[in-house]
Amino acid sequence: MKTGILSLLLLVAGISQLAAQTKLKSIQSTSVWAVPNVKIDGNLTEWKDDFQAYNKAVKLYYTLANDEKYLYLVVKSTDPTNNAKIAAGGITLNINTADKKNDKDAFSLTYPVVNRAGGGRGRGGFGGGRNGGAILSDSAAKAATEEAHKQFISAAKEIKVLGFKEITDTLISIYNEYSIKSLVGYDEQGNLTYEMAVPLKELGLSANDPKEFTYQLLLSGISAPTTSGFGGGGGGRSRGGRGGAGGGRNNIDYQELIAPTDFWGKYTLAKK
Predict the structure, then answer these.
(1) Is residue 112 reached through a cis peptide bond, with omega within 30 degrees of 0 on the bond before it?
(2) Which of 136, 72, 67, 108 is CA-nearest to residue 234?
């Protein structure tokens, strides 16, 4: 009886999630003024789980928003393979203020980039289930997953940046003097949550004189499987692709991890 009720609840949850995806646009089409008192901490509480779009290519719920100082990217990923893909290679936001679908002259930011020297292996999004080949109990798997999430968040301390005239380093700390902010987290359901804030002045944009620009969201994934585990790609400017078929352990489709996925959209800064 309990199994039947659990199955029903999971079915209802799945239907609700599918319905939420269906009613959202695949690419955000409206300008959005950011919610007040935004805190970039990887916790999306202030955004109230209200997203502007769900894009199937990158399997992300997302919102682009702005206020008078910042452009914000808010993301949630509910797919285990996609979470692992983000953990391995980050999410790249390319912004072309010349309104062209071209990353050559774009501002580019990739986060998270895991500091491998600090012990992170980019696998925090893989979920739990096995430990050294042994099947774990539900409670042990949950504890292992939560610990992996904590370790991943702790290791995700760098942002890859390209195209910024005032920034000479390609890797900057999340604690930087340019006021570029980003943090990743996980909600109570184990979904990956993500926030980024980029100062409009660093992009040469102004909310007082809004103009349309083109943006790309790119998930590079990993460059190739290795015998030592999955190293992060750290982002990049690879072109889109399709996730492969054939799954693996922990509900992870390893073929999909090596297939870059992306899409392009357009956004005009909101004016208060």
Answers:
(1) yes
(2) 108
pLDDT in tens, 83-138: 999 999 999 999 999 999 998 899 999 999 986 554 444 444 444 444 555 567 78
Domain count, the chain: 1
Which residues face 171 on adjacent strands? 160
Note whether residue 15 is domain-resident.
no
List of the chain residues with pLDDT < 50 = 2, 6-16, 118-130, 226-249
CATH number, domain containing residue 176: 2.60.40
Residue 145 lies in a domain: no
C-alpha span between 95 and 266 (Å, rounded): 9
Which residues have CB under 8 Å from 86's CB, separation 6+? 77, 112, 125, 184, 192, 194, 219
Q: Is residue 8 a part of any domain in this protein?
A: no
Rounded to whole angstroms, what are the CA distances from 271 to 32, 47, 204? 9, 19, 16
Identify which of 17, 41, 27 has the alpha carbon closest to the alpha carbon of residue 187.
41
Q: Is residue 141 part of a domain?
A: no
Domain that holds residue 123: 28-127+154-268
Residues 27-44: tens digit of each pLDDT: 999 999 999 999 999 999
